[in-house]
């Protein structure tokens, strides 16, 4: 009798049958069904929108698959090289997940230059003096040169420890500007920050003359790439979760003011680099938010089950980079629509007619010759 009743329900309501199967599969996690019910309840009455806007369809250029044509540099040796920098001599630098700063010399030689013992090395830049500055999401801001590795800044001027330093740039007066992606979540839980309705990112200024690091902008939606304009009059800082980059004036009449540089990007901006012609290259990570709303209940569930929170922000298997002119207009974009060659591309650096790509998924640096063809 019970069996036939169950069968009837199965026949009439297939959604209910699916739920039953789902519960059976999750028998090992007794609290998960409750957690999932809380999610469904929370979805019925969302109390706040997740701060991930839908990517703009206006800016999304037709796919050209150009990133499938990259040449692989250091394949198998460069483990998840998040960012790429170049010095005056044309030597490329990257920080890899195995805790090395690796150098790629012009003759093609790859060198394990410095070992830092961190799997959280992210953005880097070469200063005018020839030092390499590296963001360590655990330690803060590091200086790396022939003498070794030193911690430049581990705390802000208010005593708070710097966590999740993400990208850095040096201005001509020697000041270093760097982003703190999230003051709340670390590099290994970066997805969890997307579930916050409160932006946790900062732009920080480090003055080497006073050895002081102070917050310049706060409440940024995951502060990521930072770059200075060709004239060094403004700085661009990208807000990953907001699909936009801000312009922060560091010189002139507008000094200290902030405006939108570009918004509605067709992807979540990661690192940004100034190109030789004064435009910018921005890598756009391709998020797949599985839920568009958060509520108190969902936040609670994510706190209890962080892995669920990570799963809820997935990554699409594709890569996109865009070239944005200094006036904020889109010049061109390159993509790998299926992730055949590259995915989770986090940086694009232009140098001597080539683009170099870093990634948190691939084990090489991608290299692509830039053509002057108007098609791209
Ligand atoms: Ca950088
Ligand atoms: Ca980054």
Question: Which secondary structure elements does this structure contain, and how are they paired or packed?
Answer:
Blueprint: H1 2-12, H2 14-25, H3 32-44, E1 48-49, E2 71-73, E3 85-86, E4 92-95, E5 100-104, E6 110-115, E7 121-126, E8 132-136, E9 140-145, E10 148-153, E11 165-170, E12 176-180, E13 201-207, E14 212-220, E15 223-228, E16 234-239, E17 244-249, E18 258-262, E19 268-274, E20 280-285, E21 287-289, E22 293-294, H4 296-304, H5 306-312, E23 313-315, E24 319-324, E25 330-336, E26 345-351, E27 354-359, E28 365-369
Antiparallel strand pairs: 1-22, 2-28, 3-4, 4-5, 5-6, 7-8, 8-9, 9-10, 11-12, 12-13, 13-14, 15-16, 16-17, 17-18, 19-20, 20-24, 21-23, 24-25, 26-27, 27-28
The structure holds calcium ion (2 copies).
Low-pLDDT segments: 1-28, 41-50
- CATH topology title: Neuraminidase
In spatial order, strands of the major sheet run 2-28-27-26
Helix content estimate: 10-25%
Determine Rg (CA atoms, Å).
22 Å
Q: CATH superfamily, called what?
A: TolB, C-terminal domain
**Average pLDDT over all residues:** 84
Query: Helix- and strand-based class?
Result: mainly beta
Tally the beta strands.
28
Organism: Erythranthe guttata
Protein name: Strictosidine synthase conserved region domain-containing protein
Pfam family, one: SSL_N
Keywords: Glycoprotein, Vacuole
Describe what you observe in this structure.
It is built from 5 helices and 28 strands. Helix 3 packs antiparallel against helix 4. With 376 residues, it is mostly beta strands. It has one domain: 6 Propeller (Neuraminidase). Strands 2-28-27-26 form a 4-stranded antiparallel beta sheet, with no helix packed on it. Strand 8 and strand 9 form a beta hairpin. Bound molecules: calcium ion (2 copies). One calcium ion binds next to strand 7, strand 11, strand 15 and strand 19. One calcium ion binds next to strand 7.
């Amino acid at each position: 009798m019970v069996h036939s009743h169950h069968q009837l329900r199965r026949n009439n309501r297939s959604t209910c049958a699916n739920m039953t199967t789902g519960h059976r599969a999750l028998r090992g996690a007794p609290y998960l069904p409750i957690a999932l019910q809380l999610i469904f309840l929370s979805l019925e009455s969302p109390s706040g929108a997740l701060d991930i806007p839908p990517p703009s369809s206006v800016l999304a250029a037709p796919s050209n698959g150009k990133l499938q044509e990259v040449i692989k540099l250091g394949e198998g040796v460069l483990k998840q090289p998040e960012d790429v920098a170049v010095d005056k001599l044309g030597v490329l630098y990257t920080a890899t997940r195995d805790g090395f700063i690796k150098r790629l010399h012009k003759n093609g030689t790859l060198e394990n230059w410095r070992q830092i013992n961190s799997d959280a090395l992210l953005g880097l830049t070469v200063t005018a003096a020839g030092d390499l500055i590296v963001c360590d999401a655990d330690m803060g801001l590091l200086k790396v040169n022939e003498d070794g590795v030193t911690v430049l800044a581990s705390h802000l001027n208010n005593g708070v420890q710097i966590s999740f330093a993400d990208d850095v740039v040096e201005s001509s007066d020697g000041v270093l500007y760097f982003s703190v992606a999230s003051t709340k979540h670390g590099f290994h839980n970066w997805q969890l920050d997307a579930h916050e309705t409160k932006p946790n990112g900062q732009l920080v200024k480090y003055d080497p003359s006073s050895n002081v690091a102070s917050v310049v902008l706060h409440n940024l939606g995951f502060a990521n790439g930072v770059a200075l304009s060709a004239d060094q009059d403004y700085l661009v800082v990208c807000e990953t979760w907001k699909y936009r980059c801000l312009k922060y004036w560091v010189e002139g009449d507008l000094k200290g003011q902030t405006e939108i540089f570009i918004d509605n990007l067709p992807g979540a901006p990661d690192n940004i680099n100034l190109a030789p012609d004064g435009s910018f290259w921005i890598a756009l990570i391709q998020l797949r938010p599985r839920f568009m709303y958060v509520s108190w209940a969902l936040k609670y569930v994510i706190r209890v089950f962080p892995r669920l929170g990570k799963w809820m922000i997935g990554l699409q298997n594709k890569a996109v980079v865009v070239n944005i002119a200094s006036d904020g207009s889109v010049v061109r974009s390159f993509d790998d629509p299926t992730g055949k060659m590259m995915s989770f591309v986090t940086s694009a650096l232009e140098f001597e007619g080539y683009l170099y790509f870093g990634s948190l998924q691939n084990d090489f640096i991608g290299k692509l010759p830039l053509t002057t063809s108007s098609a791209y």
